[in-house]
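#onboarding

Welcome to the new folks! Below is a worked example of what a typical request in this channel looks like: someone posts a single protein sequence, and someone else replies with the predicted structure as tokens. Don't worry about understanding the tokens yet, we'll cover that in week two.

Example request:
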Amino acid sequence: MRSLFRLLTASRTTPKPAIQRDSIGFVLADGRRIDVLRVRDPRARRIKLSVDERGARLSLPLRASLVSGERFLFEHRDWLTEQFAAQAHAGIERLQRDATSELPLRGEMLPLRWESARASRLEFDGDGALLFRAPASAGEAALQRALRDFYEAQGRADVGRWLPKYLSGLPRSPRRIVFKRTARNGVRWRPTAP
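Example response:
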């Protein structure tokens, strides 16, 4: 009887609203046209604008109107232009499939080979060089994620090797190690008041 009641009450519950995504065109202060990913997220509490290696993202709570989102985007147009200019002039060469031939690791440049595969992954080959496996259809965002995952794994391995030497000098051992992307190379947030 209890399972029958559960079946009857389950059909009456309303489903949670899903995240909605679309792309809108926007003109920066310097005249460049970009696409901004607009996301209506039921978990969002305020309108947020962020920029990362994939581009610009405008997050809207369900209660916010599309007009208020576009107004917020226009109000922060100069900030957005600065973020894209900073990415372009960061002095870091962009990863390009089959064109990038070496990557930095632990103070030296390691040779890089490219190979076609089903999933994007950067790893060591047997000769001490790096091997980047990626499908031909992989976009820049997928390559950047694989690159970030590789460097984070290498950082974790380095911390695992170095940490035991320093544990005796710490008041207590750390429970966990967290890697955060800094604002210079990672996500830049510009929240607004609720």
